[in-house]
Queue: 3 jobs
Job 1
Amino acid sequence: MADVSAPCPVKYFVAILFREPAQAAAAIASTKQRWGDIDFEGADHLFDVTDYYEPEMGAPLYRRLVTFGELMSPAALVDMKLACNDIEEHLASQGKRTVNLDAGYLDHNKTLLASAKEAGQKVYLDKGIYADLAGRYKKGKYQPFEWSFPDFRDGRYDAELLQVRAAYMAQLKQWRRKGARKNLNGEKLKEVLLNFQQS
């Protein structure tokens, strides 16, 4: 029987879809209140792969990636997605969203998004939320799948994701240097991750 090992903490990001910069700023402020300081903020990429959101949010739309300074447990994904839904609702105007927030994380070998929609490749987690594997690190980049978001497939975020990965790998090296990865039960794992985040 294999021993139970602690998972490595991961690098969380939110992909913010918006029309006005002030709307993105309000969303970022709300995420910082929940998950701490932002350590990376990407460029505003024109969101031109679908017009699905335009009746609700207008046009043109842009997508910006932001990441959080503290590494967190991969188990936090469900609650982060639900909190993002709450932020969207809070910032809505006249019953229409002004931002759309996609929560996810990356580690050294994958990117993963949270989703409230079921699909064949998605794995159910909890509270109505699924894990959607968005990319696998191979040959120097996160390689998308056929089901990945079109704007993640076309490479527009590749350089930013690699920059975030480099920062994550440096943080992970520090975490491992502290000897945090060892056989732990669930409660002890939470304690280790919390102590790392507070150090």
Job 2
Amino acid sequence: MSSARPSLFIVGVGNLLMSDDGVGVHAVLELQKNPIPGVTLIEMGTAILHGVNLLESATRVLVIDAARGGQPPGTIYQFEPGEPDGLPAAVSLHALGLREALRFLSCGPPPSISVIGVEPQTIAYGLELSPVVGAALGAVIALARRTAVAWLDGTDPTQHAMPLAPGQRASVEMPCYR
């Protein structure tokens, strides 16, 4: 049995030019100010295919992104993409797009992926988060830290999860440009 520590990544995805869609990148930028020892922080933005090679060595990936779950803006979700209580594979463009890209383009088995999502208030051109999503950013960062530390310690990170209500589904949001 190997005593090597797992390779853990926190990845911020989304578009910084589209207000709340950039919440994942904003979160990683804040986490970089006080990094978590043993965790690699990546600002992936919307360059998911370009980031696959960076994640091939990961055993666990925590994706932070905007997510639609039907709750008020600023609501924080934590879920496993593609699981029954998580996100259907056909809906994803960010987190599941990352999972699918890793599955098909990497040489080895894909890492385990979890998502912290934030219900957006607005996805429109703008460099700033909406006030309500900006106010949730501290809680997102704290949840990401707790989850990463739990993974590093080998404890159950689901004790920190904020699951959706039964029957509720979230979708990782990517704006439609028309």
Job 3
Amino acid sequence: MKTFKSILAIAILTAISYSCNNSAVQKMMQEPETGIIVSDENKAKFEDQINTFRTFTQAFHDEDINQLMSVVTDSIQWSPPEYNGGVTVGYDGFKAAVLNYFDNFDDITFNEAEGLIGSDNAYWSGSLYSSGETNTDPNVMRVYGTFSCLHTETGATVYNKWYAVLAFNDDGKIATFSDWFDVSGMQTQIEKFVESNQD
């Protein structure tokens, strides 16, 4: 009888041990441990930055230059989408470019995450995998989506896949802004629209 109880005890302990280990393995597979802890403060900062960018795009849509410029720093450095030899543009040049869009396009709309395959997330910060150091710093944010608008003069609808890297200062304003999209493709879409609507 003692032998039976010993075997039963060993079997129960083995089953419990396997169950615990198996649960731990499953948890590791579902939530791999990276050793990185994201603070509530950084999570809140990231959400604030998303809201700041949404204010920026809503102001673009509303053609409200004061609201739009209120979320960028006076010392903003902008790397425009068209290649310009790597020259950064400051506050006045950035504002002039925005006003040029206001003058030439209507209903400028940012569509979050549109054009991405395999993800519905438009906003990303930190770097778990990169050629730099792993970090959880939300101050540099990547944004993916599309812009759509109407060309004021012709009524052509223009679309662009769009990507940007933004850095925020301690006050939560956009301090640097690098964006990429097919600038010449906008003109091509307008020309095709005009050609297709000629008598």
